[in-house]
């Protein structure tokens, strides 16, 4: 009777991230709440990025989009490119605490992104949306960028809601 025990429903964000990294599936509720949290932070992040982004942030986003385009053209997953793109938007807020918090979120959702981007059509669509978001950030158009981000996230949220409605309370099958 030794080891680490976690009370269901009361795990810290760090514990949820550790479980996800170990391959322990998140519950349907965790996935829904993660999607909600993502929407809140990503829309806020892109607004701030439009105001605060540096030339270095723009250069890095261009590099990521170039790599992303190559992966999409080759029919490869752009799961890691997606993490890098959204992470750079958060870094462009110039808020280090925000960036550290979001890093935990992306650790929690690594498996979800891998599943989501198995479909090449989703990769092509996501890349096209990333290109539009980049253009809005480049011209510092926070209203357009926020609208683009909200629409972008709605597609992923719809996918996860549909998957959750078709599966058991956890996503064990989807993550494999």
List the helices and strands and how they pair.
Layout: H1 13-21, H2 28-52, H3 55-73, H4 79-91, H5 96-108, H6 110-116, H7 120-138, H8 142-166
Walk me through what this model shows:
This protein has 176 residues and is mainly α. It is 74% helix and 0% strand. It contains eight helices and no strands. The chain is globular and about 50 Å long. The protein starts with 12 loop residues before the first helix and ends in a 10-residue tail after the last helix. Residues 168-176 have low confidence and may be disordered.
List keywords for this structure.
176 residues, 8 helices, globular
In short:
This protein has 176 residues and is mostly helical. The protein has helices spanning 13-21, 28-52, 55-73, 79-91, 96-108, 110-116, 120-138, 142-166. Helix 4 packs antiparallel against helix 5 (96-108).
